[in-house]
Predict the structure.
Amino acid sequence: MEGSTPPWVLYVDLDAYYVSCELRDRPELRGRPVIVGPPPTEGPTRGVVLSASYEARPSGVRSAMPVAVAARLCPEAVWIPPDFAKYERVARDVRAVLRRHSPTVIPFSIDEAAVIVRGVDAEEARRVAASIQQELIEELALPASVGIARSRAIAKIATDRAKPAGIRLVLPWEAAAFLAPLPVRAIPGVGPKTEELLRGLGILTVGDLAGRKPSELMRALGSFAGELVSLARGEPREEPEGSDEPRSRSTDHTFARDVDRWEEIEETVRTLAGELASSLDRENLRYGTVGVAYRWADFSRSQRSRSLGAAREGSLPLTDAAVHLARELWDSERSSRRRPVRTVSVRTERFVPRTQRQVFLDDFW
Ligand SMILES: [Mg+2]
């Protein structure tokens, strides 16, 4: 019966997204090393690579790499300056395709989304994934990889293993064995710092992590320890997928010219926070976390977020927190050369309906 089994999470990640968007307009570049980023021959070369085609990757080119390094590694690459408005436009078409396959589509970034599919067996879930891939390629000329699992975290890890253009299905009873040989960095949220910490404890693979007790790792990792160990054992703690509550909501503004004046940034942050607060208000949602992000002139990105401790509503707490975070982030880059700012965005998370007692946030504290 529909709903009696847990849903499948189809984690869809478009391959080399910005490059794929550009190749739609310039198909003659297919099969060649293509890099989307500020071209190193034009003006200052302190920007970073945003996306590299699979043909450029064997040379060692990766996203977020300084363009000067990428140009040295892959001198034959064709450079295309980024067009974010185009990528946003195409992303809307992608979401429309995904929504044909489920009423519940949860976007996580411009090129990643989870499609929640209910009431089908594993083979049917795999067929849905294949149709999604086929429609994205035929209608939008965009290759995608899809990971399928019962949880979002494992589906995402599976997607990374399916790239490019693959499908990877992880059945619930295979999850621990699938994860065990992977490096700890394969886990979303484990960055270089956590990797270093874990290595210090003799933990290199997800399997090593699964063999530890959360209490052994508490000192190093705090409350993240329990989450990590359950995921490593193939049983991530997640909120049930597919509730219709949004997980996060954000709004952003790209300046017509890069901005290096705090007053202008602050005014924009206030406007964005106000807009966001009124849209949450219309939906009767309170928020528990506020975040701010900048995309700098060199296209690199920094973000910072803060829990408010208890769910709030209205524009005042949101605006105060957002301005504060924006200022911290701004000051932290004072000595670096990444300024000025191209885009600023304000985000909220941890929503609680206004009618409901806020159990999880109280528990959280
Ligand atoms: Mg991608």
Observations:
- The pocket of magnesium ion is lined by residues 13-14, 17, 111 (CB under 6 Å).
- The first strand starts at residue 8 and ends at 14.
